[in-house]
Write a structure and sequence with these properties.
This protein is of the alpha+beta class. It has two domains: 10-70 and 197-377, 3-Layer(aba) Sandwich (Beta-lactamase); 77-174, no CATH class. The chain has helices at 10-25, 70-84, 94-97, 111-115, 136-145, 162-174, 181-190, 220-231, 247-258, 271-277, 291-296, 361-377; strands at 31-38, 41-52, 57-58, 64-68, 199-200, 210-211, 243-246, 262-263, 266-267, 311-312, 331-335, 339-344, 349-356. The radius of gyration is 20 Å and the shape is globular. Residues 29-360 form the Beta-lactamase-related domain.
Length: 387
């Protein structure tokens, strides 16, 4: 599909495609699926390179990606749906829902603190074995036993797995129908949005279209993600990073966000919830998880700019995968060293980037900063008074 809207510069989008192809030819990563929305419509959709360079399998529009931390946004919306039912509040203590979580100094940690990565939880869960990965109940039970690594409410420290896996446990505990987390997300998000090629866990329906995680940069984290992906099953539940989706499905999800929580009259979450979710809840505090990477690259600390489930553009010049050209209100999500989506409400412009071949995380941020700026630059200037 190459159908450009009147308000995007065709030559700029051609340059975007050429830049992606150069990256793939240089083996920086293996493939990429890109979708751009402008003015409430999908105006660009292209696939480049390989789903799996090892086998020569080319990427196409029906392929399904492991979307990693995009899953946190689904989990956050599941929490907001529970709030809208009156089951809890953002200031509810997690231990009020999961009593075991109150052990070892965690008794006052709130739902909002877990959502904004200020609850003191570690990046990964100590003691979690490969055999336990994907078993949500075992994961939550183990998380209940640990102590905070930072004072809750004081330090911003991105928790790749623990915080949102616990939130998934909260969603499951509050469900009056006794459903598993994966079923709740399918019923309350995927089906209303016609995300027919999406799943929590490696559902058999998507097996033939799955894009495997392959570490292009063999960092310890990327190798661990590669091993985890290979072991995923239909029943695996990782609310912090175990989702799968196609480009079409993610574009439907983004369309719902643009419309304030509704798609084609199908309601997912309220505009009020989304407005709060994409507000800055970490102030000017930096993300402590990135301290070592910042120091290694000679970068000064910069604000984390985290909402409740979303990353935010904010203000300033620092590595920003949504692009330096993005307006301060731009929000979205980042999936390890492989993918990004963002919505710029000021320009009514959104993009989804899904890639194969995991890069180093900061290198991936810089890649998407470069590519996202090219998307922002494609927008034609608005002439005052024009209809």
């Amino acid at each position: 599909m190459r159908d450009f809207s009147a308000n995007l510069r065709t030559f700029q989008l051609d340059a975007l495609g050429a830049a992606i192809q150069r990256d793939i030819d240089a083996a920086l990563y293996d493939g990429m699926a890109v979708g751009i929305r402008s003015g409430g419509e999908t105006v660009y959709q292209q696939s480049f390179g390989f789903a799996d360079r090892r086998t020569g399998r080319k990427l196409d529009g029906d392929d399904v990606f492991a979307i990693l931390s995009f899953t946190k946004v689904f989990t956050a919306l599941g929490i907001f749906q529970a709030i809208e039912r009156g089951d809890l509040s953002l200031t509810t203590r997690v231990a009020d829902v999961l009593p075991g979580f109150g052990a070892n100094g965690k008794q006052n940690i709130t739902i909002a603190q877990l959502m904004s990565h200020t609850g003191g939880m570690p990046f990964t869960l100590p003691g979690l074995t490969p055999e336990m990965q994907g078993d949500l109940r075992m994961t939550v039970d183990l998380a209940c036993q640990i102590a905070p690594v930072n004072p809750p409410g004081e330090v911003v420290s991105y928790s790749a797995q623990v915080s949102y896996d616990v939130l998934g446990g909260v969603i499951e505990a509050l469900d009056s129908h006794g459903r598993h987390y994966r079923e709740i997300i399918a019923d309350q998000i995927f089906r209303p949005l016609n995300m027919s090629h999406s799943a929590i866990g490696a559902h058999p329906d998507i097996a033939s279209r799955r894009v495997p995680i392959v570490a292009r940069n063999e960092t310890p984290m990327n190798l661990a993600l590669m091993a985890r992906d290979a072991a995923m099953t239909e029943t695996s539940e990782l609310p912090g990073g175990g989702g799968y989706a196609s480009l079409d499905d993610m574009l439907n999800f983004v369309a719902m966000l643009e419309a304030g929580g509704v798609l084609d009259s199908r309601y997912v979450v309220s505009p009020a919830a989304l407005e709060l979710a994409r507000s800055n809840h970490t102030g000017l505090r930096p993300n402590n998880t990135l301290a070592a990477q910042r120091e290694m690259r000679g970068l000064e600390p910069y604000p984390a700019y985290l909402g409740l489930g979303f990353f935010l553009r904010g203000e300033g010049l620092f590595p920003m995968p949504f692009g330096q050209f993005a307006s301060a209100e731009t929000y979205g999500s980042i999936g390890a060293g492989s993918m990004v989506f963002w919505c710029d409400p000021n320009r009514n412009l959104s993009a989804v980037f899904l890639s194969s071949g995991l890069m180093d995380q900061v290198d991936s941020h810089l890649r998407y900063q470069r590519l996202s700026d090219m998307v922002h630059a494609a927008l034609e200037p608005q002439v005052k008074g024009a209809e």
